[in-house]
Amino acid sequence: MADDATVRDGVEPDAPSPAPPGHQPPALRDLAERARGYAEAASSANTRKAYATDWKHFAGWCRREGLEALSPDPQVVGLYITACASGAKSVGGRKNAVSTIERRLSALVWAYAQRGQPLDRRDRHIATVLAGIRNSHAAPPRQKEAILPEDLLAMLETCDRGTLRGLRDRAMLLIGFAGGLRRSEITGLDAGRDQTGDGRGWIEVLPGGLLVTLRGKTGWREVEIGRGSSPATCPVAALETWLKFARISRGPLFRRITGGGREPGPLRLNDREVARLVKRAASAAGLRGDLPEKDRPALFSGHSLRAGLASSAEVEERYVQKQLGHASAEMTRRYQRRRDRFRVNLTKAAGL
């Protein structure tokens, strides 16, 4: 068993510095630090955090089984994903979903690559086992419920307009819906350009609406959110009201409320708060009242806002695809709960 402190503590292995070994002149040290920063920017903070957790999980399993974690061994990795799929005691006794196993495998490939020791996931000890896991355990995707306009209106009524928290929550729900934004995109917004180091974009309030500039997985994109037909449901008006009463002109757009609910704090909201807000407001509004109350929260998430826009916006599909930032129309269609699946009827087209 490895005696390395990295394995003992279950910590993700550090990415190797691209700088040459030995003593370095100041210019090379500066370049090394910049290179490390660029390497970190290649993946999102959430991805790196998830990968670190997965490496810790794998290293802990190796330690308990008396196996070496630091050297990439396809046979060991094959045994590990088998343990995850079968819910072995050595991994906590709980079966992992196929998507979780695939993410854990991606984390191991990434971690070993950072050490200059590539792991070949096409090796038969990994690829064959993973194919069997998919065939045995893969389940159809479970889509979250779409928040439709009538649902959103009911949810907005549960937000107290007399409090800062209520004003913030109204703005988040409306901006998330009208922009078709992911939860990390909502909480990652700043009040202006180049204001924070951890921001994922910024806003510009224009006469015709709101221009949102976002940094995504494939680069920068712009999302245009037009003004609504009524001040009560206008996402831009809701945002302007929040900014006014919260006195926010720079820094994170959506923040925690402090001081007994009287003022916004300096810290950015965690993106999980968007999912909690959607679940809480949906429950308070009585959505899906036909189901037991304990079953309702699992139906809704931050994605429910994106799905709601995709399902209810009566415009050409290409505009919805652009708003959501999807690379393909097929991905957009997965979000459209109301679309006519049989609009193109190949049965009739074939003469039957």
UniProtKB/TrEMBL annotation:
Domain Tyr recombinase span(s) in chain numbering: 142-351
CDD domains in the record: INT_Cre_C
InterPro entries linked: DNA_brk_join_enz, Integrase-like_cat_sf, Integrase_catalytic, Integrase_recombinase_N, Phage_Integrase-like_Recomb
Listed Pro residues bias regions: 15-24
Regions of compositional bias (Basic and acidic residues) in chain numbering: 1-11
Leader peptide range in chain numbering: none
GO biological process: DNA integration; DNA recombination
Gene Ontology MF terms in the entry: DNA binding
A UniProt-annotated Pfam family: Phage_integrase
The UniProt record lists the keyword Chaperone: no
This protein's UniProt keywords: DNA recombination, DNA-binding
PANTHER family: DNA ADENINE METHYLTRANSFERASE, PHAGE_INTEGRASE DOMAIN-CONTAINING PROTEIN
Record protein name field: Site-specific recombinase XerD
Species whose genome carries this gene: Gemmobacter caeni
